[in-house]
Amino acid sequence: MMKKSLVALAIAAISAPTLGAGFQLNSQSATGIGRAFSGDAVIADNASVLSRNPAAMALFNEAAFSGGITYADLAIDIKDVNYMGPLGPIDIGGTSDAGEGKVIPNIFYIQPLNDKVAVGFGAFSNFGTGTDSGNLDLTNAVLPTGDVYAPFDLLGNTEVTTINLNASVSYRINNHLSLGAGIDAIYGEGKLDRFAGETPLVAVEADGWGFGGIIGATWEFNERHRIGASYRFSPDMKVTGDINTISPAMIPGVGLANVATSFDELEVPLADIFQVAGFHQLTDRFALHYTAQFTQWGNFEQITALDGNGIIIDGPAAGTEIPVGDVALKEYLWDDSWLFSVGGTYNLSDRWTLRAGYMFDQGVVNEISSISIPDSDRNWYTAGIGFNITPKSTIDLGIAYVQGKEVDLVEESAIVGPVNATTESGAVYYSVQYSHRF
Question: Which residues form the signal peptide (predicted)?
Fold first, then answer.
């Protein structure tokens, strides 16, 4: 039976950052970033609300546009990477710049059709990151023979991008209750490489589409107080492309040999998301808002590679093809997670608005951790400001400082065995947004 360790670790590195285990990108608007996304499913101060709750479109009585850009400056530190070599412990140090920044655009439009129905369209991103752990110092990993004894299967470059295209509709039942629903078309693409010297252990370049949906509701107690809730049904993503690996395998009748394997498709289940939010205009100038969000990561059990074929690349049986078929590449023991945020909005004047917020974002990794997927509980500290250019046009700025925790981990390498490391992840989000009501 073919040994799957190298393939599993490689696929884990390309898929999991996309799913948000390392970083789920909360980046749909500058206003949301400024208030830590507290109340974002019901505030409805611009068109970006449709990314969180389609029912909130019923709060608009005129057409609305919003568009912006967020830059996520990801900071991923990897420290004290060490393992046991043939002659004793080997320490290959760490890197303080394993994270790569991301530019994340968004655009939204809401059009009321009458006093009951509104439709909306949006393009935004929920997930994406870039990591590079391949620049560690391997000097200490050179053996007297000149061979390099290092966990090459855990070290390398990963780049992931996703785009969520959404179309939604809302319906006002009465003065208090509104309902909404939408369809998500999610496009994802990723690149990954893992090299042992000049030998490519893993070379992946894949993309694909998945389709999901969202339903929501809002309840307006009066014009100053309202709550909202939504449930996002996430798809099982299937990505196709060049998915190639080289790994050792024990072949019956042949013995140990290196096998090059190609898969046609990867199946990656995504987590459903439920959230509830509230907005309360406590005074003419100050509003309090909050959000609780539950993400069902406990359903993320494994990644499956489909329709694999292998070929022996060395020894007397070189060139022999080996059917692989569907393979459960990696098992995960992730937990369901909660996110809680609270924030405030203060109208300084007719033109200036101030925002601030705090968010606690619970990590999902339980017993299985990874150098390529640094994860922990995170604290968000955010602030924002808005300026009304005209009564119908607004520019908003938002900034968020995301602080993770240091995590000591042990990850299994198919090459060197257990690898010890300490990881810490964080980020700074910078966002600008233009909104207009027609």
Answer: 1-20
State the Cα–Cα distance between residues 206 and 186, nearest whole angstrom.
14
51 phi-psi bin (left φ>0, alpha ψ -120 to 50, beta other): alpha
Cβ-based neighbours of 157, under 8 Å, separated by 6 or more = 130, 131, 132, 134, 191, 192, 193
Q: Is 325 left (phi over 0), alpha (psi -120 to 50) or beta?
A: left
Specify the pairing of strand 225-233 against strand 199-222: antiparallel
Residue 124 CB-half CA count within 13 A: 28
Among 299, 370, 369, 375, residue whose Cα is nearest residue 336 = 299
Quick one: 302 exposed, middle or buried, by C-beta within 10 A (0-12, 13-18, 19+)? middle
Rounded CA-CA distance 41/225 in Å is 13
Q: Which residues does 3 contact at the CB level (< 8 Å), separation at least 6?
A: 247, 248, 249, 250, 414
Tens of pLDDT, residue by residue over 153-165, are 887 777 777 789 9
* CA gyration radius, the chain: 24
CATH level 2 (architecture), domain 5-437:
Beta Barrel (2.40)
Q: How far is it, in rounded angstroms, from Cα 340 to Cα 312?
A: 51
- Hunting for tokens 């498709």 — which residue is that? 265
Outline where DSSP puts E strands in 348-416: 352-361, 378-390, 393-403, 407-413
Nearest to 423 by CA among 369, 342, 378: 369
Alpha-carbon distance 127 to 238, whole Å? 16
The residue to which tokens 């938002």 are assigned: 398
Q: Would you say 310 and 327 are in contact if contact means Cβ atoms under 8 Å apart? A: no
Task: Say what the pTM is.
Answer: 0.85
Q: Which has more confidence, 232 or 206? A: 232
Nearest residue to 141 via CA among 85, 79, 80: 85
User: Taking the CA of residue 206 as centre, how many other CA atoms within 13 Å lie in the half-sphere pointing to its CB?
Assistant: 29
Distance CA 113, CA 121 (A): 14
Q: What is the pLDDT of residues 366-421, one digit of tens each?
A: 766 677 666 788 899 999 999 999 999 999 999 999 998 888 888 888 888 899 99
* Of 172, 241, 182, 253, nearest in space to 209 by CA: 241
Burial label for 65, CB within 10 Å (0-12, 13-18, 19+), is middle
